[in-house]
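re: the backbone from monday

yeah here it is again, tokenized this time
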């Protein structure tokens, strides 16, 4: 049963993403800032554990992590631009709905991350420090870059819509 646990979580994520493509949700600006703060805290906790248990990161490893962060930022910006944002005239709030293309891109990133581990493409993943292999570091950097840039793009788009509707004549 244990080998299937990651796939169960991916199936749950897929169901949540499918729901988000149909339902308009109110954009809550504080959450646009809270999510990156939580992600950065989790990444800092990971970095602390990696420093204590994981292998030493070489300059080439740092370069790969920076590349993963940049690739994640590009993916996150694309996902953020693919989210549908609209002003709801009834409530006056800005609402959002994930696009199918954005959900597919996010799913592809999840499948790649899980597939790398399941196919054994991570030669450094062995023993108790397996969670802190160089490939895991790069994949975490991709995830952090994706979330941070997605939230930043959504915040900028929300701000533009909120400002435009506030300045529009009644």
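seq for it, each position gets an aa:
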């Amino acid at each position: 049963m244990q080998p299937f646990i990651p796939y169960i979580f991916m199936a749950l994520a897929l169901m949540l993403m499918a729901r988000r493509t149909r339902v308009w949700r109110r954009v809550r600006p504080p959450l646009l800032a809270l999510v990156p703060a939580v992600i950065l805290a989790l990444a800092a906790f990971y970095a602390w554990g990696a420093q204590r248990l994981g292998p030493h990161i070489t300059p080439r490893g740092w370069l790969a992590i920076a590349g993963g962060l940049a690739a994640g930022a590009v993916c996150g910006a694309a996902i953020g631009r693919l989210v549908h944002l609209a002003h709801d005239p009834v409530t006056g709030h800005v609402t959002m709905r994930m696009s199918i293309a954005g959900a597919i891109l996010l799913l592809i990133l999840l499948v790649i991350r899980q597939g790398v581990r399941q196919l054994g493409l991570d030669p450094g993943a062995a023993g108790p420090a397996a969670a802190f292999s160089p490939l895991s570091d790069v994949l975490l950097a991709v995830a952090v870059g994706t979330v941070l840039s997605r939230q930043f793009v959504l915040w900028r788009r929300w701000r533009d819509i909120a400002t435009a509707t506030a300045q529009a004549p009644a």
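Residues 2-167 form one domain. The mean pLDDT is 81.
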